[in-house]
Every structure is written in C-alpha cells, then in structure tokens.
UniProtKB/TrEMBL annotation:
Annotated protein name in UniProt: Protein kinase domain-containing protein
Subcellular location: Membrane
A single Gene Ontology CC term: membrane
Keyword Calcium: no
GO molecular function, one term: protein serine/threonine kinase activity
The organism's place on the tree of life at top rank: Eukaryota
Species, as recorded: Urochloa decumbens
Length: 937
C-alpha cells in the first residue's frame, strides 16, 4: 500500500514537472503570445534598464531569438543582446531597443585592411536608417557592405593634414572628411559588414598610426581633435554612441503568412501587425488601445491618465502645449498625445517627422499643423526619434476637417480623448473633463463617431482637462463688448443701458429714477464755464511763473545733469579735444527748428538723434537722451566722458553737449550716409549700394575702431552695444562707430567689469548675458553678428519661407556646420566675391561667435585678419588685371588655399591661438601700426 502511494505521488510530480516544462518551452519558443501573469516570475530590470517582452532573461522569459543577458558582476549591472558584447541602454514597451556600438581598431604596421561585422541575434533586430556609422581616423577609406548580398551600400574617406589646417577644418565640429567621416544606412539592415582600407598617403605627425574609432549613432556627434588623437574611447564618443534597433519577428516573411500559415506562433494578440520592409513583421498597439505591450496576450489597453506630474515643460519654441498633450512621460494623458520638440518645433511622433504642430486649441478641439518639406524633414528626423508609438496616429487620432487632409501642407485636425460616448465616459474613473465648469462634447467626422472631448462651459475659458482649469471670463474688460453699464458675474454678464441699474439678486437690469434734465444741463453748462475760466487763469499764471523762474530752472537742470562735473572734465582733461564745448539750449533749439519731428534722423536705444545746422553753418547731429532714472544721467555723462577722450578717424567726433534742459543733449559730427543697417536692410528688393569691397572696408574700419577702444585708448573702453545701426557711414562710406551710452571704461589692469546687462537682442554676448561680466570679448561677439549681416544681408531675427522667426547667428553656424553657407550668402556677395573670400569672412565670424569668450579672438587679431584679406583681394585684383586669370576657384581648391593661408599666418605668429587663456602680441603697438599701414583702408 505504501509503495503504491509512493508510485502515485511520483507520477503526479512527473506530470506537474512535465506541465511546467511544456509551458516554459511554449513561452520560450513563441508558440503563442504569453500573458503578463505567466511572466510574473521573470526579471523586470537589469540595473537601470527595464526589460519588456519579447526580450527576457532566463528560460521561459523571452521569445525565441530575443534573449538578453544581465551581467551582475558590474556596478551597475549591464544588459547585453544574447551572448554578444552589444550593450543594451534601454528597451521600450513597443519593442524598440537603444544599444551601444563602439569599436577601436589599432593600426598595425604593414597591415592595410581591417574588417568589422555584426549580425542581429536571431535576425530579429533592424538597424534603423536614421542611424549612421562614424569613423575617426587618418588616411583611411571606409566601405559599408550589405550584410546578406555583399553589395557596397556606402563609403567615406577620412584624411588628415597639418595641425593648423585640422584645427580650422574641425572648427564647426562636423565630420567633413578631415579626421572624421560618416556612412549612412540607406535602408534598415539586420547587421553590417565594414572594411577599412589604410591608404598609402603620408599622414603628418602627430596623426600617423593613430587608433581608428568607430561607432553607431542616431544623435549628432561634434568632432574634436582630442577624440581623434586619443587611443581610447572619450566621454564625448560614449555620449554619442547609441543607435536605435527595431523589433522584427523574422520567422515569417509578412503578416499575411504569419496569420494564415503559422498561426500558432503569430506574435500579435489584439494588436496591429505591420510588414517590415526587409522581411518579417512587427506588432503595435494602436487606435484607442495604444497602451501596454503589443507582444503580450491582450495587453493593449484603452488608457487615459487624468493626473499629471509637476514641473512639466509646456512649450516648444513659440508653441504652447497644454495637457492632455505633453512632451515628457507623465506629462500627457495618453501615449498618442505625446509630441516631440526638435529645433524649437513641435512635431507629431510619426516617423519620419512630417507634421509640425503650430497651435493647439482646447476650446475648438483642433490641432493646427503644417507639413514639413523634405529638407526640413531630413534635418529634424534624428531629433524626433519614434519610441515605438502607433504608426496609426495620424489616421486614427486625428481626423481632417472639411478643408484639410493628411496630404495637404496646412490643416486643422480634430481629435478626441477616447472613443467612448460622453454618457459612458462620465461613469469611468478616467473621465477626462476634470474642471468644475467644463462639459463633454462628442466628436464626429461626417457620420462617423470618433469619441468625446472636453470644453469649458460658456462664459469660462482655460483648460477643462485639469482641476479648476476653467476660469470665468470677465466680459466687462473686453473693449467695446458692452455699450452700456457692464456687470460681470460667474459664467455670464449683464449689459444695462444708461439709466438702468443691475440687480445682483435677480441678475437683471432694473429702471432707476429719472434725473432732472434741466438741472443737469444747467449744472453742466456752469461747470463748463468754470473749467474754462480756471484753465485761462492757470495758463496766465504758468506763463508768468515760467518767465520768472526760467534761469533758475535751467541752472537746476545744469546741476542735475552733472554740469559742474562735465565743465571740470572738459576744461582740465588733457585728453579731451579742444573743440569740445558746452552749448546753450537756445542755440540747439534754433539749429533743429525747436526739435521738429522732421529733423529726426534715427531713434536709438539710448535716445533720439536730430539733424541741426549751427550758427557757423556746421551740420551736426544732436542726440536727445531718454532720461528716466538717475542711472541714465550717469550713462549720458559716461558717453560724454568717453567720446571726449577718443581721437580716431572711425569713431564719431564729439563737438559738445547741452545741459540746460531736463533731457541732456549731445552734439557731434553729422554723418551723411546713414547707418550700415539702413544700407543692408533698407530695400531688400533693390541691389545693395555696398559692393563686396565696400563691405570689407567697412568691416575693417569698424574692427580698427573697436580694437583702438580696447587696447590703444588712454583707458580701455568696452562699447557694450555694437550693432549695425551704430555703424554710421559718410558720403565716401567711411565708417564711424557711434552711440557710446552703454559703454564702460576700465583701468588697464582689469580684464572685465561686472555690470547690469545692457545691449540689443540678436547682438548680445550670451556669456555676458548669463554672467553679467563685461569683457572685450563681448564686443567681439557683437562684431561677429555684424560680419554675418554683411555676408547674408539678413537681419539678426528674420522670417524663413514658412513665416517663422529665425535667429541669424544660429542659422549661420548651422549652415557652416552643414557646409551650406553659400545658400545663406547674399546673391550680390556671391557674384562679386570669390568663395575663398566668403569662407574667410565666415571663418572670422564663426571665431567671433563662439559661445565661450576665451575662445574668441581679440579685436586687434580680427582687424589684422581683415587687413590680410583685403590685401589678398587687392593683390588678386592686380594679378587679374595683368594676367586676366579667373579669380574664383572650385570649392575644394578654395578650401586648400584657405588652409594654407591660415597655416602660413600661424607660422609667422600674426595670430595667437584664440582658445588660449591669455594672448601675447608678436609685435609692439608701433610695429603693428607700421605693418597695418601697408594695407589699403
């Protein structure tokens, strides 16, 4: 009996073991999508990486071909694909994998060919086409082959020259073939084969035989010489080396075959099946059931989270993004309401990113969208990585109105929260209309019911999707909304005609007693005569008071405006020009026809400038400062003190000032040709009056004036408001730097001064803006903006073809990195200048616009560089006249000449390294002035 009982127990144990083993084998082999409950025993994380099925660690936790390995010997733990060395950085519920691919290839003597290869474990992962392969090395050719057919699908070449040329070539940080090159994937691949061939070209020191670095990436990589010279993987490469892989079920060629011929191993359960371009299929939750894991049994669920986390970002560029839409996890109501911010553009997560959201109207339930052009799509595609959201977003979330569709460039698209009716939604715990004063509306497209959305009740405005988001509209504050007497109350208002009053209890207008019309008329007439009489008396008294106290007031203004200080300065200072004097107010009123508005030349940030004619027939410009606070009077005194010390042909000459009015006045020489800003941007349809030679001359003279202020004046002076409107031009286009109201002078031993931030948007040094430390490099940055204006003839903030505001400096630097600078250059400049001259100016501008001041050159270096360019232009022009040779060269020849010129200048020591902490001259000031005299001005 005992033995029989033992046999039964043993049999039951064997059956149980067989059952568990069979279940694990079925799950592991992917016989049918498992449920979340059946995977409860499986590890959910490895270190800080979440693990989502079909990936898994251990038997029964993954679909066949999707095994990942957790290395628990490291801190933190690291996750790898199968038994490979490919590290997994993140896995998303949709099946998308973020992995790291980094390789180092030491160059061995006598070896000319090196090979790299990688194959997707189980052929279940695709390298997406928005990834690229980057290679850092010298004298190498890289060839990318199709992993299956062996066909060549891409190649690039990386060369190296002298250190000086390399520093210039890599200044923009892009992989342009100098020390770094990239190969893109034309289509998704399930692996790669790479051959690296070492060329026979001589590679200069210190770049010979350096280790080649290679990595896959989806994000932009900014190349540096240090990454090239290092024999190990730098931190900047590690940050860039991550690529996106998409999940592919490869046991069948497409969805149809998987559903019909191999149903038992079909991976999609109540989720959409999508064919993959290079064979196989993938699963995705879509429509209103866009939450959960599409590879688990019945895990796609209809979810809406009415709560949101704090500190969510609610704007992208100029677009406000209200809840239920959002940019970050936890900041949107549903996954399909997630939008992506790329280059200050709000993009719909639809790969590739083809639609930009320009406005979101909760009241109308509309998204206003633009369709991006192909070029824009290419530039922003890598920034709007699609983390596995539904590919049906545009088809099932957004329905076009009558005048729009998915194929049009512009449209207004309607949307809904879920496809429930309002009645059903109100009984649901995830009902979206949370605000008290909100209501539920059904959304339809033609005769098709889409779902419901929320709206603030009439008389209220705001966001109905958040608690207390709808607030009362005060109609009484709206101009011309009520022509009577307006009374506002919650949710509505009342407009009572004149002669009526509002009853707050009954909430309606009621009649009031009529006033005595005759009494009112008499009182009105009497009051009118009284006011008129009082006005006449006041006028007489004011005139008498003015005549009696005129001298006293002018003297008071004179003292208030620091007249005694300026008199002492003008009479005692040896550096002040002899022609500087103090004018009377009467003389300047006569010179300007009592400051008539027709005499206004321009309005600046620190005052208005009038044209005047003095009694000695001198034509002058008279600046009337905007004085509001005592600090601005100090700025006026500051401008007089600075201008009175400066004697330079390219700085506006000060004749004197007037201190007898409430608003102090400056009198300086009149410049007849207006400002550089007017000539560049005045009439965009007409040809600019400034030739290329004129523009270089203006830039050189302005640079000389600023260099004089920084290093040659009695005390170093920082202008602090360098811009094209402060560059004046006379009738021979001679430059005059003006408007010193914001300038600061410092002692010779100081390098910077801490001030309140002042300047003009678009020209303001970002480092000065954030630190408040004004240095000479702040003027260098502003001058770099002027150089870009001269090159492109665009304003600092301009409208692109879509009517959107663009920052000129950002666009210029991006074009320089993308090697598309010629697309931004003014057509007149492109016709008159050679490409080498254009790239020389662009290079100087890029150096001036570097974000860190210590990496910018000094103004003296900029001036000498422009002098060299002008001398080369003059020499080239003479040679053209003698030999009739063509000046303009091909882009590659021009690059070579530019690099050789830079190298030569570096060798003779004309320019110091702009990234150094301190710069020392190779010549004395006298030598530099004699040297500069050789160049035309």
């Amino acid at each position: 009996m005992g033995s029989a009982k033992g046999i039964v127990i043993t049999t039951m144990q064997l059956v149980l073991i067989w059952s568990i083993t069979s279940t694990l084998m079925l799950v592991a082999s992917g016989a049918h999508p498992p449920s979340a409950a059946s995977l409860a025993h499986c590890p959910k994380t490895c270190g800080d990486v979440s693990i989502w099925y079909p990936f898994g660690v251990g038997p029964g936790c993954f679909r066949q071909g999707f095994e990942v390995t957790c290395n628990r010997t490291t801190k933190p733990w690291k996750l790898f694909l199968g038994n490979t060395t490919t590290q997994v950085i993140a896995i998303y519920p949709s099946g998308t994998v973020l992995a790291s691919f980094v390789y180092t290839i030491p160059m061995a003597p006598g070896v000319g060919t090196y090979n790299l290869s990688w194959q997707s474990p189980g052929r279940n992962l695709n390298i997406e086409s928005y990834n690229y392969f980057a290679f850092l090395g010298c004298g190498i050719g890289v060839y990318l082959f199709h992993p299956d057919t062996g066909d060549l699908v891409g190649h690039c070449t990386s060369k190296c020259s002298s250190m000086a040329a390399m520093l210039i070539a890599t200044g923009g940080g892009s992989c342009n073939g100098m020390g770094c090159c990239t190969v893109t994937f034309p289509v998704p691949f399930r692996g790669f084969r790479v051959t690296i061939i070492k060329s026979n070209d001589t590679v200069p020191q210190p770049f010979s035989d350096i280790t080649v670095k290679a990595f896959l990436s989806f994000r932009p990589y900014y190349f540096s010489i240090m990454d090239l010279l290092s024999n190990t993987i730098n931190a900047s490469i590690v940050r860039a080396s991550s690529a996106y892989l998409s999940t592919v079920i490869a046991d069948e060629t497409n969805c149809k075959r998987a559903q019909l011929d191999n149903r038992t191993q079909y991976a999609c359960s109540n989720s959409n099946c999508m064919d993959v371009e290079n064979g196989g299929y993938s699963c995705a939750c879509s429509g209103n059931f866009d939450g959960g894991n599409p590879y688990l049994l019945d895990d796609c669920k209809q979810e809406y989270n009415p709560t949101l986390k704090t500190n969510c970002s609610r704007s992208c560029g100029s677009t406000y993004i209200p809840f239920p839409f959002g940019l970050e996890p936890g900041c949107f109501g549903k996954r399909r309401f997630q939008l992506y911010c790329a280059s200050n553009r709000t993009l719909i997560a639809r790969p590739p990113a083809k639609y930009e959201v320009t406005n979101i109207s909760l009241d109308e339930g509309l998204l206003y969208v633009n369709r991006l052009s192909e070029s824009e799509d290419a530039n922003t595609n890598y920034l709007s990585i699609y983390y596995g959201g539904s590919d049906y977003f545009g088809q099932q979330l957004i329905y076009g109105l009558e005048n729009s569709s998915l194929s049009e460039e512009y449209g207004a698209w309607s949307w809904s929260v879920t496809n429930l009716t309002c009645e059903s939604a109100k009984h649901n715990s995830t009902y979206a209309c949370l605000s008290t004063n909100s209501e539920c509306l059904g959304v339809t497209h033609g005769t098709i019911y889409i779902g419901y959305r929320c709206k603030c009740s009439p008389g209220f405005e705001g966001n109905p999707y958040v608690q207390n988001g709808c607030t009362d509209i005060d109609e009484c504050l709206v101009p011309n909304y009520c022509n009577g007497i307006c009374y506002n109350f919650q949710g509505s208002y009342s407009c009572c005609p004149h002669g009526m009053s509002f009853d707050p209890v009954r909430r309606q207008c009621t009649s009031s007693k009529r006033q005595n019309i005759v009494l009112g008329t008499a009182a009105g007439i009497s009051s009118g005569f009284g006011v008129l009489l009082l006005t006449l008396v006041a006028i007489v008294l004011i005139k008498r008071w003015k005549r009696g106290t005129h001298k006293k007031i002018r003297r008071a203004y004179f003292q208030k405006n620091k007249g005694l200080l300026l008199e002492q300065l003008i009479s005692s200072s040896e550096s002040v020009t002899h022609n500087t004097r103090i004018f009377s107010l009467e003389e300047l009123e006569k010179a300007t026809s009592n400051f008539d508005s027709t005499r206004i030349i321009r309005r600046g940030g620190h005052g208005t400038v009038y044209k005047g004619i003095l009694s000695d027939q001198r034509v002058v410009a008279i600046k009337r400062s905007k004085i509001v606070e005592q600090s601005e009077i100090d700025q006026f005194v500051n401008e007089v003190a600075i201008l009175s010390q400066i004697i330079h042909r390219n700085v506006v000459k000060l004749f004197g000032c007037c201190l007898e009015s409430e608003v102090p006045l400056l009198v300086y020489e009149f410049i007849s040709n207006g400002t550089l800003h007017d000539l560049l941007h005045g009439n965009r349809s007409a040809k600019c009056l400034l030739t290329w030679e004129d523009r270089i001359k203006i830039a050189l003279e302005a640079a000389g004036a600023l260099a004089y202020l920084h290093s040659s004046a009695a005390m170093p002076i920082f202008h602090r408001d360098v811009k094209s409107t402060n560059i004046l031009l006379d009738n021979t286009f001679t430059t005059k730097v003006s408007d010193f109201g914001a300038s600061r002078s410092i002692s010779i031993d100081q390098t910077h001064v801490v001030t309140a931030v002042q300047g003009t948007f678009g020209y303001l040094d970002p480092e000065y803006y954030y630190t408040g430390q004004l240095t000479e490099k702040s003027d260098v940055y502003s001058f770099g903006v002027i150089l870009v204006e001269i090159l492109t003839r665009k304003k600092t903030v301009f409208l692109n073809c879509l009517g959107e505001k663009q920052n000129l400096c950002h666009c210029f630097l991006q074009a320089l990195r993308d090697n598309t600078i010629m697309d931004m250059v003014d057509s007149q400049v492109a016709d008159e200048a050679s490409q080498s001259e254009i790239y020389e100016i662009a290079l100087v501008a890029e150096m001036c616009l570097r974000s860190k001041g210590e990496k910018r050159p000094k103004m003296k270096e900029v001036e000498l560089r422009l002098q060299l360019l002008r001398a080369e232009m003059s020499k080239a022009y003479k040679e053209e006249l003698k030999g009739g040779r063509e000046i303009k060269q091909s882009l590659s020849s021009e690059y070579k000449s530019t690099y050789l010129a830079m190298s030569k200048r570096a060798e003779i020591g004309l320019f110091a390294n702009s990234s150094a902490q301190a710069v020392s001259r190779c010549y004395t000031m006298e030598q530099e002035m004699m040297y500069s005299a050789e160049f035309p001005r």
